[in-house]
């Protein structure tokens, strides 16, 4: 019997396998940041251990960093402490750090791909849920906890149970105004925020193949939001063209050798998945969330479901979510006013996202009732946006291109949404308090976010493009 792509990569990285025990899985690349690494470094220090393979470890500061005045000391004490500790730890243990001011600094899941660190066939981990982003390149990539960060530091291996496999196919052509973010929000709305639990997902089908690498990263990024261990897409010419020539990509003979291997990375025709789901791209419209988990999503023209339509055991939590959001059963979201628009995060802060937003807002003005934060995913994205004059387009529209960081995706830095305010956001999570205490988050695509920024309300972007 043939193998799935997940099985091929997994099996190639198993150091030892014994029935009844987790596999010992070798990790090719370990990405770290300032939030989940301090305790792991302390663990090494207490045990007198070095980082086993520091050349396979890359660090950056992203979660706690301000997105204005990065040349000044960080104001928030805890944030400043964590960033300072990362600098100290990386220096002590010999780990490469792309800290504030470095031209490669940025959100960890943005810099890995753009620097050519992320490559097909790799195993990659990071102490961050959205590590599955790197699966867009045909890599096994997943988030780990702090104790596991220490385990990888010390051994370059992890104890892991082999996951079940799921294939999600999306076939057909996407309609106008519909993009990768809408695809993944649609899938999660159909299978729920727990529908992928226990699985590693492979995304396939003509609609997935038609996406750019940036779009594929958006899809894989949110795999965790359906409960999946991770998600990936088989590499193809789009993948190879993106990787070639990047800073840490193979070159010359090494490129030829790598490419020959990468071209074997696909699921065999007779491979058996534990679950297969199929969707039609034509059924997907611009999506928006109305509740407090990413599975609570609807098409932009649809109405919020009723509490009574939910399974009986889920009705109390469903009603609690609507109460938190200030919404009601059967209500339409179209036309609702918004207070903030956040365009950024490891889901949608790449140059393609900023280009799409700039093209839409060119010649338009920000609505008076909205505050707009546009946060590039990295210093390289920021530099490219300025090179292309995108910052000037935003400035003319009344927006501001800030400096790189995780920003308002999570209330861990200075960019917080005030209590009770509605934020239309291109990020990945809409939990209670995610963007700040009692902030209300509605997840959307960059295009839908841009439309809200210029109209001041929730609109169907298809009517404006």
From TrEMBL:
This is 3-isopropylmalate dehydratase large subunit. Keywords: 4Fe-4S, Amino-acid biosynthesis, Branched-chain amino acid biosynthesis, Iron, Iron-sulfur, Leucine biosynthesis, Lyase, Metal-binding. GO terms for biological process: L-leucine biosynthetic process. The gene is leuC. It is an enzyme of class 4 (lyase). It comes from Sphingobacterium humi. Binds 1 [4Fe-4S] cluster per subunit. Its cofactor is [4Fe-4S] cluster. Residues 7-456 form the Aconitase/3-isopropylmalate dehydratase large subunit alpha/beta/alpha domain. It catalyses: (2R,3S)-3-isopropylmalate = (2S)-2-isopropylmalate. Its EC number is 4.2.1.33. The lineage of its organism: Bacteria, Pseudomonadati, Bacteroidota, Sphingobacteriia, Sphingobacteriales. Gene3D superfamilies: Aconitase, domain 3.
């Amino acid at each position: 019997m043939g193998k799935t792509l997940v099985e091929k990569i997994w099996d190639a990285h198993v150091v030892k396998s014994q029935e009844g025990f987790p596999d010992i899985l070798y990790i090719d690349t370990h990405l770290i940041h300032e939030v989940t690494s301090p305790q792991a470094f302390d663990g090494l220090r207490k045990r007198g251990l070095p980082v086993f393979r520091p050349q396979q470890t890359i660090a950056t500061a992203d979660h706690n960093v301000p997105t204005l005045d990065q040349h000044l000391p960080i104001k928030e004490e805890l944030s400043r402490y964590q960033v300072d500790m990362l600098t100290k730890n990386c220096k002590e243990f010999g780990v490469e750090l792309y800290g504030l001011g470095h031209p490669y600094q940025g959100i960890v899941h943005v810099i890995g791909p753009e620097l050519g660190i992320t490559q097909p066939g790799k195993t990659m981990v990071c102490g961050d849920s959205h590590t599955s982003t790197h699966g867009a390149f045909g890599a096994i990539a997943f988030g780990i906890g702090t104790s596991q960060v220490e385990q990888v530091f010390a051994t370059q291996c992890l104890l892991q149970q082999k996951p079940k496999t799921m294939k999600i196919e999306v076939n057909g052509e996407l309609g106008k105004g519909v993009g990768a973010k809408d695809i993944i929000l649609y899938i999660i709305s159909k299978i729920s925020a727990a529908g992928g639990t226990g699985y590693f997902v492979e995304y396939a089908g003509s609609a997935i193949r038609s996406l750019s690498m940036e779009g594929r990263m958006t899809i894989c990024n949110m795999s965790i939001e359906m409960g999946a261990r991770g998600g990936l897409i088989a590499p193809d010419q789009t993948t190879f063209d993106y990787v070639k020539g990047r800073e840490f990509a193979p070159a010359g003979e090494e490129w030829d050798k790598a490419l020959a291997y990468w071209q074997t990375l696909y699921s065999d025709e007779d491979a058996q998945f534990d679950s297969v789901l199929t969707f039609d791209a034509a059924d997907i419209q611009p999506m928006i969330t109305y509740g407090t988990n990413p599975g609570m999503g609807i098409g932009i023209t649809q109405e919020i479901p009723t509490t009574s339509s939910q399974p009986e055991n889920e009705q109390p939590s469903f009603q609690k979510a609507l109460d938190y959001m200030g919404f009601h059963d059967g209500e339409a979201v179209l036309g609702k006013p918004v207070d903030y628009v956040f365009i950024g995060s490891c889901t949608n802060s790449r140059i393609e996202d900023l280009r799409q937003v700039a093209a839409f807002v060119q010649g338009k003005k920000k609505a008076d009732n909205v505050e707009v934060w546009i946060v590039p995913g990295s210093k390289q994205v920021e530099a490219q946006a300025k090179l292309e004059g995108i910052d000037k387009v935003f400035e003319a529209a009344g927006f501001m291109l800030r400096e790189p960081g995780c920003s308002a995706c999570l209330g861990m830095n200075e960019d917080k949404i005030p209590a009770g305010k509605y934020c239309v956001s291109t990020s990945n999570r809409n939990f209670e308090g995610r963007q700040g205490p009692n902030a209300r988050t509605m997840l959307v695509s960059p295009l839908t976010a841009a439309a809200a920024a210029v109209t001041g309300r929730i609109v169907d972007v298809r009517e404006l493009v």
